[in-house]
Amino acid sequence: MRQLATGEPVWDLQFDENGALTAPARGDFLAEVAAQGVTDVFAFSHGWGTSQDDALALYNAMFPMIRTAAQGVPALGKIGFAGIYWPSLWFPPTPATPPPSVGSTQADTGGQVSLSAGTAAVSGAEIAASLQPGFADPDQQKSITQIGQLIDQGQAMADEAQSDAAKTELLTQISQLIASLVPPAPAGGGYEDSGETALLLTTSPAADYQATAEVFGSVPPGGAEQSIGYWFGAAINGAKDAVRVLSYSIMKSRAGTVGQTGLGPLLAALHAQSSGVRVHLIGHSFGARLVSFALSGVGTPAASPVASLLLLEGAFSHYSFAAAAGNPFGVPGTLNTFNDRVHGPLAATFSVYDWAVGIWYPKASFLSGQNISAVVTDRWGGMGGDGFQAVAPAADVTMPAAGGLGYGFTAGTYYRVNAASVIDNTAGEPFSGAHSDIRKMPVAQLAVAAAAAHS
Length: 455
What we know:
Blueprint: E1 2-3, E2 9-15, E3 21-23, H1 26-36, E4 40-45, H2 52-70, E5 79-85, H3 105-108, H4 124-131, H5 138-157, H6 164-181, H7 196-200, H8 205-215, H9 230-273, E6 278-284, H10 286-297, E7 306-312, E8 346-350, H11 355-363, H12 374-380, H13 383-386, E9 394-398, E10 414-418, H14 441-451
């Protein structure tokens, strides 16, 4: 345990990719929480592509702001903080082209023909080097290395007089390695976005990787048909995009595992030992999925200490909490029956400036059998794109640029929080936009406002 400069306790909870708490020891954590006499613990999970140092920097920025926002709030007692660390993956930075400005003529006319994730510019070796540290299994590390080598081999072959059969065989090898790394589907019923598995488990990599390259802008639409032999270069670029989609899929699955098998049971144990402690869950990006899936691992509502849930630009399906009614998939979301583990409000921010979730996340599922159209975004969109969908009771609120606590939250209600006036800084982030622009006082105040509305 460490402390903020103002004396509040901070626990750094380290989980491995399977959800095991590796530090501190569970007993030590539970005993220290009891000894500190805290009544309200803000537990925050980082998101994708975040090193331990980056996660620590996020927590060191946000925890003091939350502490300041919580001062004098009568519904809260002595507060403490828990930073959640888990092994997310880091895809190398790519020179993406940013989308048209909101409200521009180009944006209004759908002018995104040149929009590109920039994946074509990075090599297979660079991709492998970035992703490999996120795997503990040596065999998986080897597979990632081999994928990178084959991509670079294919890049060289694109300009060589090789047979189509040899090129197709190389693409098949890449697809088989990708398929070997695909995480299993979540158990327990319900539905969450999994359309990306159609790409990751493809039996037609030559065609599907070309289509992937077009969707991610690695080649112009229709470009793969421009000349004989051009198809292979497009497919190799699409293979790079497919590995990016694989990294999404693994992070999404891993976050759910850590939440359900690691954080959830730890929270239940905390409640069993210190029943007066309230936990306020906050998650960013894939960390939002982690804290949400903790609800499925905490046990019964009576066993849950969770008093509020705040999802900041969540990178998982906006239908995860949905009822069957109004859900285009026709079945309840995976987390539909777990909202009663939260004894307060459930809030999710979204921003039109979050390009990572609003633009690229839905594209990862384009091979689900749907047309590449607005329907894809509606069906396969993420929390950070438009918040909870097909849930009740639900309310829409706006985060004021000046911040504040006056949201009027009530327990048991889902809130879609339009944060575009605050989560809006896209400078230097042509791929993700404002996805990670959350280190701001209004965001801390939102967390406190949700925490203060516990039942």
